[in-house]
Amino acid sequence: MVKPNTARARAATAGKTQEHKKPPAQQRSTETYERILVATAQTLCDVGIERLSTNLVCECAGLTPPALYRYFPNKYALLSVLGERLLEKQNGLIDHWITPQLLSGPPEALESALAELILETYRVTDATLGGMWILKGLRAIPALEHVRIDSHRLVSGAQAEILAQVFPQADPLQLATAARVAVEMIHATIELLFDESLDPKSVCAMVASMIISHLDRLAPAPKA
Prior knowledge:
CATH class of the largest domain: Mainly Alpha
Helix content: over 70%
Radius of gyration: 20 Å
Strand content: under 5%
């Protein structure tokens, strides 16, 4: 009898059980819900991803395990909500910096705006309690990958639609691929800035330059 891949099985089980209940409507319950999330983020800062547990979160929040389990079945549900909230913060910056007008304007202006967007995304992540650990968790924990991937697909899909307005003759598949790769490059850059002692502004400018340099290839070559 062939034994199943235990690591994959554990990840699948975690994914099935990570669903959290809807945020409570009553004020007191809402306060407890938010208190648990703040405690989770603080515990991440204190012990990191690998040692995070619901028991440690309970200690930090001053709650009993049954009180926590009323809202979250396990630590993956906690991390899922924190991940969704961080990604929403990051994604909320895009419309401010990247517009159809910029995409159809001088590449220098678009490159500058994109560099600022990447830098601001890093700053928002850094300013979020436990932001670095949440980001790492979304990448490293199989049970959370759908949170990251769904968000990235949503953003890249919206950007591909904008690109289609700017490059109406371009191959839609190429536009979708370019947008998807750009989103991954940006998030990989944020992770890099937490992993290495690099100058954030210089790195963000470099990555923006790489992404913008590909735009000229999106438009089909003129026929001879």
